[in-house]
Amino acid sequence: MSAQDIADRAGLSVTLVRRILRTPADGTTVRDIARTTADAILGIPLPHRRAPGAPGLTDSTEASRLLADLARAGWPATTLAKRLNINPRTIGEVRDKRPRLRLDLALRIRRLHRDLISLDPAGHGIHPTDIARTRAAATRRTATTAA
Question: Other C-beta atoms within 10 Å of 139: how many?
Answer without folding.
Answer: 12
